[in-house]
Amino acid sequence: MSLIPLADTPQVGFGSDPWWVIGLKVLLVFIFLVVFTLFNIWFERRVVARMQHRVGPNVHGPFGLLQSLADGMKLMFKEDLTPKGVDKFVYIAAPVIVSIPAFMTFAVIPFGPTVRIPFTDTYTRLQITDLPVSVLYVMAIASIGIYGIVLAGWSSNSTYSLLGGLRSSAQMISYEVAMGLALVAVFLFAGSLSTSEIVDAQASSQTINLLGAEIPIPGWYAVLLFPSFVIYVISMVGETNRAPFDLPEAEGELVAGYLTEYSSMKYAMFFLAEYINMATVSALATTLFLGGWRAPWPISIWDGANEGYWPVLWFFGKLLAFVFFFVWLRGTLPRLRYDQFMKLGWKVLIPISLGWIVLVATVRAVGREVEFNRTYLLVAAGIIAGFAIITMFLPQKQEPEPTTAAADEEFDAFAGGYPVPPPLIPDTATAGAETAKEGNRG
């Protein structure tokens, strides 16, 4: 496999590939997602086992790498049960509706620059296709998967499944709003919604003068738009129903949520979609905030770091870092209470996102009129926004509890229209009188 210098590589536009090249790229992306899902399951079990001082899978294959394949084969050959009373067509279609969009989102993710296919004279981009609104395409396709989860809960004829489906719909809607708002600042800076153009916009690095020293700052939007990056990372965990936001599958409350009545391959398809969605939001975060397939510093100092097939390695490295972050959260944080979770989305993330968008838009508008280094202002604004987020998570001073005057009032068992038992803790004076009576009787 020979590497072609970037200056000598012909520029190939989207839509000009032969049919066999398009089919080859689609097949490779499909194989990558399936294999990467098997690896993610093994990786998660090994990392969490290490965090909890356990061994983890280590029997099937070297280092237990074939354990995920064995689990998939087991689910494939298990009996497929269909409970009574389900809406059979919707019940069967729901896992298909969830899994198919998970594969479609990777059609616009760039894996690398233009390369030459080995053993041929054909050049192609390491991306299936691109659109002027690629990011909106990803958001729209990801939203379709919500319907599959809601339909799975509704069609299962089970209260637990229905509650899990409703929770999942409310959760995804809430955090998709915050996720979309977090991306607006990226669009304002890049001037485009195309994934390949956003990656190109992060190619140039900047320097700031701090105490007389020139400090290089990469052009990654994770640095320039740090509050947007933090909001997106929190939102992507809620979007994928992963711990500590796995409330639709809370086993302590809903058995298994929308998955309760599923088994065999239909059950496996839901988990396939979940792990592919993990890869999707991680790939989107890599593309929009971490420079995509471009090499990180100091590897970027090497002239050939962003040429040939090397960028694929940098892209997968960043992708795996986000997957480790998912696993780290699962093995560290407990599950949130549902009201806390919704409060975080609607009362914290969305207001901060709106305020940050106004600030970024103001900086962009003023920057066209006045000559100044916008990097300083954005860094200072990011620090202020970070302090604001931290302040919101600090414990609030609780109000003193009301006096026992309300407890002294006469208890009416029929006040609410239904008879209710009296309070379990009696009044102190009443308890003393009852004790005296018992003593006199003795």
What does this structure look like?
- The chain has 442 residues and is mainly α.
- 59% of the residues lie in helices and 4% in strands.
- It is built from 15 helices and four strands.
- The strands form two sheets. Strands 1-2 form a two-stranded antiparallel sheet.
- Strand 3 and strand 4 (213-217) form a beta hairpin.
- The longest helix has 33 residues, at 19-51.
- It is globular, with a radius of gyration of 27 Å.
- The model has no long low-confidence stretch (mean pLDDT 79).
Which strand-content bin applies to the residues?
under 5%
Radius of gyration: 27 Å
Order of helices and strands: HHHEEHHHEEHHHHHHHHH
Major pleated sheet: 2 strands, antiparallel
Overall 3D shape: globular
Structural class: mainly alpha
Give the count of structural domains: 1
Quantity of strands, as a count: 4
Cross-sheet strand order for the largest sheet? 1-2
Task: Produce the secondary structure layout.
Elements: H1 19-51, H2 67-77, H3 88-104, E1 114-116, E2 123-125, H4 134-155, H5 159-190, H6 195-201, E3 206-210, E4 213-217, H7 221-224, H8 226-239, H9 251-254, H10 264-289, H11 310-330, H12 338-369, H13 374-393, H14 405-408, H15 428-441
Antiparallel strand pairs: 1-2, 3-4
Helix pairs in contact: 1-10, 1-11, 2-10, 3-4, 3-10, 4-5, 5-8, 5-12, 8-10, 8-12, 10-11, 12-13
